[in-house]
TrEMBL record:
Domain of life where this protein originates: Bacteria
Keyword Signal belongs to the record: yes
Signal peptide: 1-22
One GO MF term: hydrolase activity
InterPro entries associated with the record: Lipid-A_deacylase-rel, OMP/PagP_B-barrel
Keywords per UniProt: Hydrolase, Membrane, Signal, Transmembrane, Transmembrane helix
TM spans (from-to): 46-62
Organism of origin: Chryseolinea lacunae
Name of the protein in its database record: Acyloxyacyl hydrolase
Length: 237
């Protein structure tokens, strides 16, 4: 039954996305930012607001699972993303964080990240801090599929993004960052899992310095990493 409900959830989401083409700016395609349509817009501050609302609602209206084990875990992952707007910034990144299960199908976490954006005008390093929520839409004994969304702050050692041939605006050192994506965890040992998936990454300053200082960055990519649970047997989770 749970598998059936999760499948229907994913199917409804896919159908919703297919109807969202007209809700994107000219020149941007829905598949470049699949959850960027209104009213979701998970690449903006809604990427933090909506998961927060969802978590609070679920905590208030669903019972606590007293049999839940292995609540805390530590993870480390690395990945790459590619900007789909000029100058098509290549952005390697590394992330480390902790994750805490509030329900068997929902967790909260916080991570620190290093961003390394590089293109023909940008080459800098960013340090980020991002809280997030994960919603596990499909679970088996050995694997879990989840949707993730969250946002925080990132500081770059140089202004990012810099002006280029198609956009004369120059960004700022301090920016907001949001990420959402789809991931899977696969057990590989008693306390260890492999994680991998795809993510959309957004960097902008929210027009705090004016729209003429907010060129922004959007990219899509993948990640791979390892999760370690602090106690008990992962297969009993």
């Amino acid at each position: 039954m749970k598998v059936r409900v999760s499948f229907l959830t994913i199917l409804v989401l896919a159908l919703t996305l297919s109807q969202a083409h007209a809700q994107y700016p000219p020149g941007e395609h829905w598949y470049q930012n699949p959850l960027g349509f209104k009213p979701l817009k998970l690449h903006t501050s809604m990427g933090m607001v909506l998961p927060t609302v969802g978590v609070v609602a679920f905590l208030l209206f669903t019972p606590r699972d007293s049999a839940l084990h292995n609540r805390f875990s530590f993870y480390s992952d690395a990945g790459f993303s590619w900007g789909y707007k000029y100058p098509h910034t290549f952005l390697p990144q590394t992330n480390m964080g902790i994750n805490f299960f509030m329900r068997r199908w929902m967790s909260l976490g916080i991570e620190t990240s290093l961003y390394f954006p590089n293109d023909n005008v940008n080459s800098t390093v960013g340090m980020a801090l991002r809280p997030f929520a994960r919603f596990y839409v499909l679970r088996t004994k050995h694997a879990r599929l989840y949707l993730e969304s969250g946002g925080g702050l990132v500081y770059f050692f140089q202004q990012f993004p810099k002006s280029n041939l198609q956009d004369e605006r120059t960004g700022t050192r301090m920016n907001y960052t949001t990420k959402y994506g789809l991931g899977v965890e696969m057990n590989i040992a008693r306390r260890t899992s492999l994680m991998t998936g795809v993510r959309h990454l957004h960097v902008a300053n929210g027009d705090l310095n004016g729209s003429d200082r907010n060129p922004g960055h959007d990219s899509n990519g993948f990640f791979v990493g390892v999760i370690y649970r602090f106690n008990k047997d992962i297969h009993k989770y």
